[in-house]
Amino acid sequence: MREHEGTRGDTRREGPVIGDQYVTAETPPSGRRGRPHGPSHRRRRDLLLGALAGAALTAALMTLLQWPHTEVVHRARQPQTVSYGDDAPHYLGLKREHTVSGRESYRLMIGRDPGLGYGHLVQIDASLGAEGIADTEWTKTGVRVRFGTGHTLFVPASSFTYGR
What's the pTM value of the predicted model, to 2 decimals? Predict the structure, then answer.
């Protein structure tokens, strides 16, 4: 092999040429100049990819933690003209629950808790719940619920009084 004088004045062996420079084992190819490489670049890239993956996983986790999502779509309070043996006010609420799979279910909650967190629970068919509650009628014997479909449901007072 012939020796040539390199661009920096040093002597190198003849080898592959990129542009006007010889490429040898001692010198990196000039075509890579300007491109980030090496451990610090890889470390920054890995940190960026890790941050992006972490953000995506956090968003997915937060979404899943929000499910199932429950909302009260109808609320009613026992009128003051009606009283039960436990002398407590009673509340009725129709709750709609959205699941992760996209299904909707409905529950009727009747009890003493104004937040509707506990009481007598009745599962309602989705077709009835979707039409909503048209009217509630509170009597001494219980509460009658009339749905938008025209269907009625009677819940006896013994099911929701005295903290049940």
Answer: 0.61
